[in-house]
Design brief:
Blueprint: E1 4-17, E2 20-33, E3 37-41, H1 48-55, E4 62-68, E5 71-72, H2 78-88, E6 89-93, H3 104-113, H4 119-132, H5 148-160, E7 166-170, H6 178-193, E8 197-201, H7 205-208, E9 213-218, E10 221-222
Parallel strand pairs: 3-8, 3-9, 6-7, 7-8
Antiparallel strand pairs: 1-2, 1-4, 4-5, 9-10
Helix pairs in contact: 3-4, 3-5
């Protein structure tokens, strides 16, 4: 039997404007098993990024039940959620979110610095990651010295360096040309084959083909 990693039950997100509720997500029920590669699609404003941010615990203003690796997220406080986020999740953003004043190697070290890992071990993990992603020659450069594709490679390397169970990717190829986008998606496929669960938000039908299944959002509702 597949092991559930994520279970959402009747999850809703709305903004209160006076007496009116403006809904972004409505009654979302979703199960994601360990090892899944799920794609979330839908038009702009359908709630895709909001759903990803809820799963990634970047958004706390939602209602419903959310279980991550059997942890009842809806019952946890902010500090407890941050700890679980660090333990389980790597996030890849369309706009990279690298730290501009840190070198590539220092950016890769950031998620390791949150963990109880000796400095020598962290340095070895950064070296392995630089090698794996073919960016050894870029290790002392700053993000503004890299191309968009190179920045996204560094962002993915940073997201996976601590071996998270779950990668959340929000339009990860949106700023890249097609060859770079394919390279990123092949990388995701390889990580998924190695056991990492991946949830991606994308507008690209081509990117969706790399996943196992797709859900479509429309006006905050799951349509399939």
């Amino acid at each position: 039997m597949p092991t559930p990693l994520i279970q959402l039950r009747n999850v809703e997100r709305f903004y209160q404007q006076g007496p009116t509720r403006s809904y972004v997500l409505r009654r979302i029920d979703l199960d994601v098993n360990e090892g899944d590669f799920l794609t979330i699609m839908g038009p702009s404003g359908s709630g895709k990024s909001t759903l990803l941010n809820i799963i990634g615990m970047l958004d706390s203003g939602w209602a419903g039940e959310y279980y991550l690796a059997e942890n009842a997220i809806h019952k946890l406080n902010h500090k407890q959620r941050i700890e679980l986020n660090k333990k389980y999740i790597g996030f890849v953003f369309q706009s990279y979110h690298l730290l501009d004043d840190l070198t590539v190697a220092e950016n890769l070290d950031v998620p390791l610095s949150y963990r109880n890992i000796r400095k020598s071990e962290r340095e070895a993990m950064v070296a392995d990651s630089l090698d794996r992603f073919h960016i050894v020659g870029k290790k002392d450069l700053f993000p503004n010295q890299l191309s968009g594709g190179q920045q996204q490679l560094v962002a993915i390397a940073r997201a996976v360096i601590a071996k998270p169970k779950l990668i959340l990717a929000d339009e990860p190829t949106g700023n890249l040309h097609s060859a770079q986008g394919d390279e990123i998606m092949q990388l995701f496929r390889k990580l998924n084959e190695e056991g990492t669960t991946i949830i991606q938000v994308t507008h690209s039908e081509r990117c969706a083909t790399f996943g196992h299944r797709t859900i479509n959002l429309e006006d905050g509702w799951v349509k399939n």
